[in-house]
Amino acid sequence: MEKRENLGLKVSAMGLGCMSMSQGYGSAERKESERTLHRALDIGYTFLDTASVYGTGHNESLLGETLRNRRDEFFLASKCGIINKDGKRGFDGTPKNISQTLDDSLKRLNTDYIDLYFLHRRDFNVPIEESVGALADAVKAGKNWSHWSLRMFI
Known about the structure:
Low-confidence stretches: none
Number of strands: 9
Largest sheet: 5 strands, parallel
CATH superfamily: NADP-dependent oxidoreductase domain
CATH architecture: Alpha-Beta Barrel
CATH topology: TIM Barrel
Number of helices: 4
Structural class: alpha/beta
Mean pLDDT: 90
Strand order of the largest sheet: 3-4-5-8-9
Strand content: 25-35%
Helix content: 25-40%
CATH class: Alpha Beta
């Protein structure tokens, strides 16, 4: 598979978005999801995308359990900031939530770092400097490689 390189990183030109393995498009069979993840790596996918909100953590657990012995083969992206509270979607960009969500994600993903950590959506009730500060703190702590991003924050 074709690769793209930037900032010293090399990843597959196409990534695998994993949300549908846990929600969104009907039920997904676990065995089929596991086969898909392994096959993706086998044919050259090296960029996998998930989020804490996908399947309320199920998606990260699926990746962490299925690929626990293959972590060095892919670039992992995950996101925080969208929450489900009392069955309703909301946003929480507080440093406390970002930090806690990252720690929870690391456990579910069976890893000690995430290559690219996104703020999925901006929480307009929190100064953006506070959210960005929490992402920078994660880099300093070694939990998030030096690539973090804000997505759809305006």
